[in-house]
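cache lookup: miss for this entity combination. No prior model stored, computing from scratch. Input as submitted by user K.M.:
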Amino acid sequence: MSKRMELYSGNELVAEAAIAAGCRFFGGYPITPSSEIAERMSKFLPQVGGRFIQMEDEIASMGAIIGASLAGEKSMTATSGPGFSLKQENLGFAMIAEVPCVIVNVMRGGPSTGLPTAPSQSDVMQARWGTHGDHPVIALAPSYMREIFDETVRAFNLAEKYRMPVILLLDEVIAHLHEGVALPESDEIEIVNRKKPTVSREEYEPYADTKDHVPPMANFFEGYRYHVTGLSHNPKGLPSTDFEVVHAIQVRRQKKITEHLDDILKWEERSMEDAEIAIIAYGSIGRSATDAVEHLRAEGVKIGLFRPLTLWPFPEKRVAEIARQVKRIFVPEMNLGQLVLEVERMAKGDAEVIGINQVGGVMIRPREIVSRVKEVA
Amino acid sequence: MTFNYDEYVRTETIPHMWCPGCGIGIVMKSIIRAFTALKWDKNDIAFVSGIGCTSRMPGYMDMNTLHTTHGRALAFATGIKLAHPEKHVVVVGGDGDATAIGGNHLIHAARRNIDITLIINDNAIYGMTGGQYSPTTPPHMIASTAPYGMVEPNFDIAKLVMGAGATYVARETISKGIMLEKYIKTGLAHKGFSVIVAESTCPIQFGRRNRLADPVELMHWLKNRGVPKTKAAGMAPEELQDRFVTGELFRDDSRPEFTEVYQQVIDAAMKKENK
């Protein structure tokens, strides 16, 4: 049985969900519009025996959550655009060292200080390519309140399951929006914990390939005494510059994603069965797009919605199928065209792809999507 | 009797990558001797570093080792210590790593007085990247990015961390290994943020450019720059110019340690929540 409806903001729900998912460490740094997450974690964590620390900067908060995770705690940090930029180097460390953690980025207008209090979706590509080097990425983008809770829990579960950082992308609209939501009881929440080694210390290889390409992870102080480094390393974790060793481990890390797409990808579709036009939208704009589709359907337009909750990896196969079904795809985003590039790449000319872009710090409203669709049709 | 260093070393990773005549080996040996003296279980030690020559040390040590990003070792170490306040967290780094790119984390770890021991191998140069000047390269000395001599003033690392709140601070040159070991041991056992500055040598990147390429000659030069605390007390400031004071420089056992204070927060919050 679900609890009764209560009023929450998106940021508050991230904190509620993190605690429910088992997060027991938060390292943060104040930044608008994400600060409410840190504020609530500073209150909740000690109540459940967890620990909160406000670090000296964004870089340090990212480092602290990696350290805490290596020591066995499920860990999270939360930030926004400029802070997300600062975290990128250590985010790459978490990827190469395969340390589970969750990074929340409440997107605001950029570049630089930009529009600190206004929404945007302009960090979609930063989430994918922000840190240097080839690396796998999981980034989730919920649209609704209950989804924020569920996707935060899922972010922790995916981080633990695939031994990697997971990015939760919110935007200022849904982060500060307050809505009534019924949260699940704790026994209704699925919790995934990192796979532990079952072999002896001598046999343990923290970075060896396994059937699922996710090697078991020993926590510090559990007797395994292994080495963790941001240098390219061998299966034992020790630095290596051997071509074959380095190549193999890079490919394995990529396979953690590419061979588990069915598990990682998640989306919602509406009215797609007979659609001749599609809208692909995510985050708060996913809500505008939902309204737009309803409105246009009422007018007899054969239009459907594809709303990815997993932005990275991108749902390539399904988007390619949609492009073969419809004649036109609209991609409304609060940026100058980021996810639309992925849509174009997968459409391969099978459908016309049109971006609807707005970067002034005001969300794209349903009627703006409706009028653009009509204008083209 | 010969001392057995292997207990705390991943012997399969030896030989190490440091240059002949490098001072880091003395620092590493001093750390191992201090661990041995304290009888610390290697399963209970997290040994953390950033980037640079000194920061390669954890790879050779048989414990829970973490080689992080440039300057950020203390940030990672803070997360480890908070997750497991009952375990030992030790950080090593060079002068550039710890005081330039890592300067912010250094002063804030000191301010919190978190129970971490930091050992800085101060060889006054960026060794790994090819001998660029660091915040501790002495005045007028030549570096690959100071071809006309060092023109920036230096940090006095000991004063810096004392001012920021560290509760145990010591400094010794690597020419006095026994003293260095003693200070490291005291720092490790100290509850709070402790900093041991090991004044060290880099004959290849620092010595070679400054007519001090011979490791023994460089060691003598270094040793002569150090002034024991008792002797320095009677010296005029101008006599101490371009020299550094050695010994146990500061100790305060009265200041509360950060993870202990935070435990009180947890105890109070849990009590309130369960009422």
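stored under new cache key. The first helix of chain A runs from residue 10 to 21.
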